[in-house]
Amino acid sequence: MKLYDAQAPNPRRARIFIAEKGLDIPTQELSIMDGENLTPEYKAKSRFGLIPALELDDGMVLTEVPAICRYLESKHPEPNLMGRDPLEIAQIEMWERYCEMSGSQAVGEYFRNGFSKLDDRGLPGITGIPRIEALIDRGKRRLASFYEVIEQRLGESEYLASGRFTLTDITGLCAVDFAQMVKLGIPEANRNTKRWHAACSARPSAAA
Ligand SMILES: N[C@@H](CCC(=O)N[C@@H](CS)C(=O)NCC(=O)O)C(=O)O
């Protein structure tokens, strides 16, 4: 088994999940900046051109973090990170999708459209997509709404999906750390989010 990896928020979601599971999976690092995810060789393995991707021993390749995690969770059920009963499973999936689509993607929109080194790469995994200046501000507004929603949620629940740390918190943490990296960190007044962020960051897996 091998994880195609990169120094970027989505591969980090997979790395943290793998660390929480206590698994030892070899990695091969690719450079997104140098377009190593866009080569015919990589796309022959992982046709979306995205990272991470998990290559199984028989050559089959899985992409999309929740799918990779679902596979690993099925193979290694403990510690459980994706839910123990129908309601918890659904809540984890609901909040996890929200964190990726409204958190990580909002930061990505802000970052990619304002970063000249990604000219012609306005979307991940493909080329020929010009940057759009208006999306810089839209990304910032989407992120502000994400921060508002999770602040409220974390006022009623210790962690994002349930009362315990799950895959959702991994995706949430990677989104918030990505936002911090581009100087759009947690708003000063958001005490619940800061409490949750400190708890997630204190786990050894956060270093992955
Ligand atoms: N929905 C995908 C997102 C994967 C993704 O967008 N990965 C980024 C790195 S954070 C990537 O591959 N970027 C390649 C590029 O920018 O061309 C998942 O869950 O794995």
Description:
With 208 residues, the chain is α+β, with helices and mostly antiparallel strands. It has two domains: 74 residues, Glutaredoxin (3-Layer(aba) Sandwich), CATH 3.40.30.10; 122 residues, Glutathione S-transferase Yfyf (Class Pi), Chain A, domain 2 (Up-down Bundle), CATH 1.20.1050.10. Helices cover 51% and strands 6% of the residues. The protein contains seven helices and four strands. It has a four-stranded mixed beta sheet, covered by helices on one side. Strand 1, helix 1 and strand 2 form a beta-alpha-beta unit. Helix 4 runs antiparallel to helix 5. The longest helix is centred in the middle third of the chain and has 27 residues. It is globular, with a radius of gyration of 17 Å. The structure holds glutathione. Glutathione binds next to helix 1. The site of glutathione has 15 residues, from helix 1.
